[in-house]
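Sample pair:
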Amino acid sequence: MLPKTIFGKIAEETNRYAEQTAERTGQPDVHWTPTNEREVKAYFGLWILMGINQLPDIHMYWSDNKYIGNQGFKECMTRNRFTKLSQYLHLNDNSKEGAPGSPQYDRLHKLRTLVNATREAFKKYYRPGKCQSIDEGMVRYKGHHYARQYTPSKPIKRGLKV
């Protein structure tokens, strides 16, 4: 369970990033309106539902076809609003990020708010039992990341080890 303040922080940083983008490009996004804590919760809720009811394309959830579209998604927020929130979603202030190589540099700066919140939640709520078994696995990943590994003898040759 994440602290309730995390969604307010995400809303604040998302609004800040939209403003920073408008300043950087010199033109405000006429389709953007500031978000709030309630809307950010709804946004993450829709992502959870997308994991339960999987469709081949995100835009299909808002389809007018009664056999494909999801009425709950349409009532929660419009497809365009969902797309705009995805475009500007931010968890931390980019202007406070340290330069690479400096002592203030943090590879996880953009996710630090969420990492700290989940770490605190695990400390508070997770009480492991006496007997535990910990295993590792590889998550397929083809992008560029410093933690990506290559293991030629495994079924998943390139990915992130967890």
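The chain has a mean pLDDT of 92.
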